[in-house]
Fold:
Amino acid sequence: MADVEHKIMFAGPVGAGKTTAIGAISDIPVVATEARASDAVAMRKSRTTVAMDYGLIMLDGGRKLHLYGTPGQERFRFMWDILATGSLGVVLLMDNARPDPFADLGFYLDAFNNAITGTAVAVGVTRTDIQPKPSITAYQMWASAHGFRMPILTADARSREDIATLLKVLLAMLDPSLRR
Ligand SMILES: Nc1nc2c(ncn2[C@@H]2O[C@H](COP(=O)(O)OP(=O)(O)OP(=O)(O)O)[C@@H](O)[C@H]2O)c(=O)[nH]1
Ligand SMILES: [Mg+2]
Structure:
């Protein structure tokens, strides 16, 4: 089928790399809704997503993979459910340099529980070059202790290859024919 279109959502905390990841992998220039960051976010970076990011990957056979990035700030939480609707799967990006990445992971798995149930989730841990701990093994142990089964990989959001690997892992869980 040439006209099959799918939607993948990127979620995770402010600065985890959602906008960067979509920019690294998209086949079109990303449509981003970024604004100058204020208050606490501005201490981390100058711009933040306020509505969504949109990118597109052209798969073999003319099929399209639409990529949507959520705003990390919780005050834009109303967008999370909007963007989650109809998603084939969720990529959760976790910033390893944040104070408590496991608490972040628990929070996002809970917040996107509806979207994740019945679909698939893959976790990409960013900034491991800056902050190597916790290790991926520690994440996996945390996930299994909390009853989650999902792939958890390191991923530099700036790396097209890393984000492609994350998406391939996610798509393979859903439908092996979607592998690029
Ligand atoms: N050193 C390092 N920097 C990274 C890595 N992954 C992403 N970054 C950087 O982290 C920043 C992420 O910023 P964004 O892509 O705007 O983050 P976001 O998740 O879209 O944030 P919000 O829209 O505010 O929720 C960028 O400056 C990236 O270059 C990584 O693995 N290592
Ligand atoms: Mg963003």
In short: The beta strands are 5-11, 31-36, 47-58, 64-69, 89-95, 121-126, 152-154.
